[in-house]
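Hey, quick one: can you model this chain's 3D structure?
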Amino acid sequence: MVTLDRIRIVLVNTTHPGNIGSAARAMKTMGLHDFCLVAPLQFPHPKARELATGASDILDSAIVVETLDEAISDCTLVVGTSARNRTIPWPLVTPRVLADKLKNEAPYSQTAILFGQEQSGLTNDALQRCHFHVQIPANPEYSSLNLAAAVQVIAYEFRVASLSHTEEMETWDYPLATIADMEKFFIHLQSVLIDIDFLKMNAPRKLMTRMRRLFARARLDRMEMNMLRGMLAAVQEAIKQKAIKQEAVKRDTP
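Sure thing. Here's the predicted structure for all 254 residues.
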């Protein structure tokens, strides 16, 4: 069953305070309450409260942060809303399929659904931090959807899924890695790939973007994350020892 308490709605760089209020109202009608705003242009604002219409408690409890990292660091699943296809395709689902996937998330997991700025949507950097992208199958001849309306559509699917019981999910031995864990891993991975000259920063060819997509699909748990970080550390140590030996040979060579 979908646990609504473990779903966070994240609005990124929202420009109109009315959309924040309307989104809060959409959330409350569907039983969602975890609301996070990333660098909103205007908030708090009377217009947000006016359009919340009975959902002022959602506004009052909203967390306001300056960066996306702060909003999702504790999450184990991050999904970005996207109205268009990208150069490098990402796993893409409809709201209904996404809601169905959430039925199999562990009870402790925290899910974040990201909504971008009204005119331009989420940035590529934000979308690359996501495990999936979700796209509302609107009329292709006029697919423009108001921000709060998009929140309403997706929240509705979560509400419906939360009312249906499914078989108990298979237990897992370790918790999933959080986004904060994943970011540390990607920094470590990039460093090692540079050290072994596999990643050339003067011609990266979107290698790290594709690496992000690969590991987002894998949904690593903490033990798997620790194993990979250990492997990377071992590679770094091997490089260091090889350099030491080569330096010793140079010193001993007449």
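One thing worth noting: The mean pLDDT is 93.
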